[in-house]
Amino acid sequence: MQIDTSTPVMVTGATGYVAGRLVERLLEEGVTVHAAVRDPDDSRKLQYLNAIAEKTPGSIRYFKADLLSPGSYAEAMAGCSVVFHTASPFTTTVKDPQKELVEPAQLGTRNVLETVNETPSVKRVVLTSSCAAIYGDNADLKHTAGGVFTEADWNTSSSLDHQPYAYSKTMAEKEAWKIADAQDRWDLVTINPSLVVGPGINPNATSESFDILCQFGDGTARPGVPDVGIGVVDVREVAEAHLRAAWLPEANGRYILSGHNTDFPEMAAVLRRRFGRNYPIPKRALPKAAVWLVGPVVNKTLTRKFVSRNVNLPWRADNSRSREQLGIQYRPLDESLNEFFQQLVDSGRLKK
């Protein structure tokens, strides 16, 4: 893989969890990064990127941009050969899914790609999508061709009322392919990660991934966890996949990034072996009937529809395209989870 360091690249949402590791890899390779952020003067948010830039051969420049402001990425994108669009909210606790999830994801993607259409230097766009654009519920697995999710699958079961985050990611990726297919100057590659874990460059980042791991260790999940199958991938593999998707000439289409087909009880068991003595890591899987009865009361996202379509159901995905075409090698689940949990401990987010 030959990485072209003669032209800059743009990264949207550069202070985000996945984007932080991506920018780190770009700087390590000597690339000039145009970091599009909400506030280029917020030194507190930029300190982690600046610390990396100081000790790597690449360089970083900050540009003010807003997902929902048309044309706001034009300055940052000028002269760039690659655009990495990572900016999109990842949360399941929202009051207005349309305004808080769908509009930033779908309209933000349209805003970025319309600017790409107006920037002749851009040759490739790498979009951070999600496995949520491939499936909505674990029950969808029975409708797949081989009992496993692949890049050929699309989420058809989510909506504004059910799994709105997954719906927003689906709408955003479909918007991206619609715009990409309507032109022939630049090509689009999408990275579709499952649940992203592992230490980020910012220990205080805000992401649903951090919240889930905190619940394993702060007592919230002490009574037990629902047996929900889930895919898990390390943030460092996701960043590497973005890098390779940008510069490998043969990279194309969608790539599932998921190192492990697992579930919440197995994740708890992994963490309990190392941290169970000092933290209330859950020890059992909750009965489905109990989750169905009590879940909606204690957690609004655990609707009865979610419980019936996900609890006690496995999750399986085929990651062969990422391994064979991008050359991604997935690290052990224990390593990713334990290093992530340790970061939460070291940063003070979890107390003994």
Order of helices and strands: EHEHEHEHEHEEHEEHEEHEHHHH
List how many beta strands DSSP finds: 12
Shape: globular
CATH topology-level fold name: Rossmann fold
Describe the sheet with the most strands. Answer: 7 strands, parallel
Helix content: 25-40%
CATH first level:
Alpha Beta
Termini gap: 45 Å
What is the CA-based Rg, rounded? 20 Å
The CATH level-2 architecture is identified as: 3-Layer(aba) Sandwich
Q: Can you identify the CATH superfamily?
A: NAD(P)-binding Rossmann-like Domain
SS content category: alpha/beta
- The stretches of 5 or more residues where confidence is low (pLDDT under 50) are none
- What is the count of DSSP helices, taking H or I runs of 4+ residues? 12
Strands ordered across the widest β-sheet: 3-2-1-4-5-6-10
Total domain modules: 1
Keywords: Oxidoreductase
Protein name: NAD-dependent epimerase/dehydratase
InterPro entries: Epimerase_deHydtase (IPR001509), NAD(P)-bd_dom_sf (IPR036291), NAD(P)_dehydrat-like (IPR050425)
List keywords for this structure.
3-stranded mixed beta sheet; 7-stranded parallel beta sheet; Rossmann fold; 352 residues; 12 helices; alpha/beta
Task: Describe the structure in your own words.
This protein has a single domain, classed as NAD(P)-binding Rossmann-like Domain (Rossmann fold). The protein is 39% helix and 15% strand. The protein contains 12 helices and 12 strands. It has a 7-stranded parallel sheet with strand order 3-2-1-4-5-6-10, with helices on both faces. Strand 2, helix 2 and strand 3 form a beta-alpha-beta unit. The longest helix has 21 residues. It starts with 8 loop residues before the first strand and ends in a 6-residue tail after the last helix. The model has no long low-confidence stretch (mean pLDDT 93). InterPro entries: Epimerase_deHydtase, NAD(P)-bd_dom_sf, NAD(P)_dehydrat-like. This is NAD-dependent epimerase/dehydratase. Keywords: Oxidoreductase. It holds the Pfam family Epimerase.
